[in-house]
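Q: Fold this one first, please.
A: Sequence and structure below.
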Amino acid sequence: MESYQFLSPRKIVVKTGGLASAGTLAKELGSKALVCVGGSSSRKNGSLDRLMQSLRQAGVGTVLYEGIRSDPDVETVEKGRALCGESGCDMVVGMGGGSVLDTAKSIGLLAANGGKLTDYETARPGKPMLPMLAVPTTAGTGSEVTKMAVVTDPARKKKMLISCEEILPDIALLDAELTYSMPARVAAATGMDALTHAMEAYLSDNAGPVTDLFARKAVGMIAANLHAAVYNPKNAEAKKNMMAAQMYAGLAFGNTMTCLVHSMSRPLGVYYGIPHGEANAVLLAAVMEFNLPSCVSRMADMAEAMGLSGEGEWGLAEALTAHLHKMHALLPLRHSLAEMHVRREDLRPMAESAFAAGTTKVNPRKPTVEDIVSLYEKLL
């Protein structure tokens, strides 16, 4: 019998309007929370006030760490860790997109273990992070259910991947209402990020029976609901399905790792500040075309999950890559690296960084640096 394991938060709560229960859930974890949130959107849409009210009503003390930006860096984490320690917080609540949740995880990790975040890029911490309630507001990164956090180290021009069981949130609270106010471009980018998570989890060398269930389900749901969720923010059903699907994708890739798309997208974020989901979106179809000869049957499976048709496995796999191009073309995103102002002279150093990434090692087709350069060139 084959051997595998599957990790997830000890509790996942999926409830439209569920933000009102955040305080009750947080009370299970501690008495004083460092509340991590992003920019002004949570204030404007009222979700921050509702969160803080719920925490206060449950008797949970709060310290607010506000203004966490997209693609957080080590300094952002250090500031949060200092505030957490000075304030005597014994738990972390993160409400926001993947950047906020990854920052909250990283703060909790350092608050519990000390040291610098770079220490845990390769070494496993001795203790779990502070208890954490994760509340995603995008659909999305799946960070609320994964053991991973991505934080930029500007000094090395690198997005660090911290991956260990010790940063898996204790409780995830998914309330689709929190995604209603997402701008179309954010909904498109985060949705394509979730699709990339699901597809790469299904193709990863680490894929297994449990992750396959979640990955395939996510692929079908995202394909059926992404465009409706992007272009009709009042489509509550599509929003609910996207929130669930990105969580399924998170449960899948959180146990398998991602693959070459993510390896190639991280340098685009470091060199050019391109949002992670948008970088994944521009790369996805081209990388899947590259992967196709090594995993025809798996790609055919995903085509069937999307409801596509084709003659035999090859026909289905080719239908999948064609459909990915169409999905991307219909979204309000940039569609080439040229549109993103990527310079040819940066392609090789970015390719070398992508080649060295651990996620490249589990890609179904093993690329060379030259292969990766060629993929970047194809998208200029």
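Q: Good. Now the second chain.
A: Here it is, same layout.
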Amino acid sequence: MYLTKQEECILNGEHGEVMERMFRLLVRLGDIYGADAMISVGSVQVAGVSYKSIGGPGMEFLEDMASKGAKVKVLTYLNPAGMDLENWREYGFPKDFAKNQLRIMDAFKRMGIVVTATCTPYLAGNLPRFREHIAWSESSAVSFSNSVIGARTNREGGPSALAAAICGVTPNYGLHLWENRQPTIKVTVDADLTFNADFGALGYYVGKQVKNKIPYFTGIKDANTDHLKALGAAMAASGAVALYHVEGLTPEADLVEKKNLETISVTQKDITETYKTLNTGKKPDIVIFGCPHASLREISALAEKLEGKRLKKPVWICTSRMIKEASERMGYNEIITKAGGSVIADTCMVVSPIEDMGYKTTGVNSGKAANYLPGFCKQDVCFATIDDLVEAQS
């Protein structure tokens, strides 16, 4: 792999211990995957933020990095934390957990990282441009940025993303290269897709089928960015899809090579069966929306459905702090709160310790959450549309 003279100096330790350690990690990664050089990145999103995910060793590593003067060179955001960073007491997050989570956030802040904890950074002030090279970690954010925006990133681990943020570069391999962004399988869809949950079910089904291939979808007549967010998130969770194309909808769909592709079909029956597969519980103790983090449109839709109602059990909608503040200005938060629900910032049901907060069955409209909750949070799952979930709780 070609390195510039400045990069060789970093590798030789001339820019300090932290830079050398982080750059050496990137060089090893590049060597493994056959990168020809390093490329500059426009932004980074770092995973490994929740105390639930990284525990004491991860916290101590980050504090050590911060104490040694590590500083990021590019705009860097964080994946969701394990709790609402401002209102954790109100929502019942454990005190000991909160203490450690706040230590983690302080370490990131000292490194110059924006302590905006969200899996939808593109909705919260970190929006890459078409074909911009970035180094993002969270699977749904990687999928959205590659597929819907047309930026270029591999699915980075927490350490490699942090290294890219500190060094300002990433190895040039994988999805940074045009030849590796071509579809490898065609998916024809013949099903009625209306709700986010429908797209989540489609994504879950397709992810299971295609694993880490790059699907090219036909038959999806229309989809907004929330639908595409749900589709990509579920495919990344049930498979390992980091890039997909949708005919007529995503920016690279008209540019990629589509000849001689293996084809699979998805019918209404497949979607219906997927709903059944993802339902492992009967009556939820809590309903949680916002996986990936909810947009303002999704919060407004929930507020409209809850206006004048009174909920029987807790309903959360998870989002970024920035979207929560916009929602507050619009009066949506007040409507949801009056109904007995909560707008939760900075976290989500997957990385928060909901299993330690008395919840055993969670209702979701997210294919990603439905995939992860049984293993990560020991939850039974009620997977349904927003209409069905709200109706059952009010």
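Q: Anything worth noting on the second one?
A: The radius of gyration is 21 Å.
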